[in-house]
Amino acid sequence: MSTNRRKFLANGAAILAAPTMAACGPEIRLADNVPRSDFDDESTAEEVTEDIDLTGKLAVITGCTSGIGFETMRVLALRGAYVVGTSRSLTRAEEACKKIAGLTTPVEMELSDPNSVVECAEKIRTLNSPIDMLICNAGYRGGGNNRELVNDVEKHLAVNHLGHFIFVNRLLDRLYLAWQGRIAVVASRTSYTTVPDDGIRFDDLTLTDGYSDSLAYGHSKLANVLFSDGLARRLRGTRITSNALHPGVINTDIDRNLNRALQFGFAVLTAINGKSVEEGAATSCYVVTSPLLGSTSGRYFEDCNAVTVSGSFHDDVAMSDRLWDISETLTADFLVAHHRPERDELNEILRRKIDEQRQ
Asked: What is the pLDDT of residue 343?
């Protein structure tokens, strides 16, 4: 389907839906005090990284074997970065890395298993290198409305949020060593379109009340946004930024657990009003590479621009802090404490790193 035809169909659908959206939908607008890009929903990952040289930088991305994860890894490697890609299947990660022209390393990680997350992070730490880009991309989407628990927590929340919560914690000190470490958390519009009325259900993390896979997925994606925001606030005064994003509606294997009827419907939706994989990876690549965003943190991005979503829980600091506290409690056995370097100390560490590279 051509871009013009896709836009025609999308605009037609938007016109038909306009009264409903105006009546009950959230208001989305460009965020204030954030540099605006010239990119949009049709920009590709290659376009947003054009003329950006990532030589000498290390990127880590979860969920690298297909879809936007693979495309993000491919483009970052194309621009010169050394990319470590994770997957719950080492074989699939190896196959993905072999397809890419550039320096890549596959690592196994099962986000539902905290021990696997710790082991993966420790393998990455053996590289003894600063991490410049950390993209929390991997995601789980159930199908059939069969509620599953992982360590007494609903599975979507356990995989999409708690797994990445541990992973970021175990690698955070490596981002301190980068000239400007960037964290991107791939969330979704479901973080404000398909969530419980009260936001994060702190008193029901098993989601026993009114469970559906779509609600559970949106619940976990809201957790992604709130985690990124909480992380950004805790990293103020450092060179590390954290931002969340919606990649777009893309026909990837995120729907692999849905039944065939729902998969067909999703395919039709993405054909009419969706993005290509190349377009879907654009916002992730933009957030972790754009020179414009060196001091932008705690924001939520769509179509390569920061936006605010009125009527959502995105900016609920109290909810974000409570989520942080309960996440720490649930994952306490797998977390490490970090020494936050003072600026002079950090500058000295970075100077030594540069001297080592020159030798």
From this structure: 66
Task: Judge whether 264 and 251 are in contact, CB under 8 Å.
Answer: no
Residue 20 has pLDDT above 50, yes or no: no
pLDDT at 269 over 60: no
Summarize pLDDT for 191-210 with one digit per residue, the tens: 999 999 999 999 999 999 99
Give the CB-side neighbour count of residue 149, counting CA atoms within 13 A: 8
> Would you state the pLDDT for residue 15?
31
Q: What is the mean pLDDT of the chain?
A: 88
Rounded Cα–Cα distance for residues 350 and 124 (Å) = 19
pTM: 0.87
- Torsion-angle region of 44 (φ positive above 0: left; ψ -120 to 50: alpha; else: beta): beta
| Segments in the chain forming alpha helices (H) | 3-24, 45-48, 67-78, 90-98, 114-125, 155-156, 164-176, 190-193, 213-234, 260-273, 277-280, 282-289, 317-330, 343-358
The two three-digit tokens of residue 96, written as one number: 């993905």
Going along the chain from its start, the domains and CATH numbers come out as 29-358 (3.40.50.720)
52-to-60, 78, 79, 212 alpha-carbon distances in Å: 18, 10, 7, 42
Which residue, among 252, 233, 224, 288, has the nearest Cα to 60 in the 3D structure? 288
- What is the per-residue pLDDT for 264? 47
Q: Are 208 and 175 in contact (CB under 8 A)?
A: no
286, 39 contact by CB (below 8 A):
yes
The DSSP string of 39-76 is --TT--HHHHTTT---TT-EEEEES-SSHHHHHHHHHH
Residues 219/207, Cβ–Cβ less than 8 Å: yes
Task: Enumerate the active-site residues.
Answer: 211
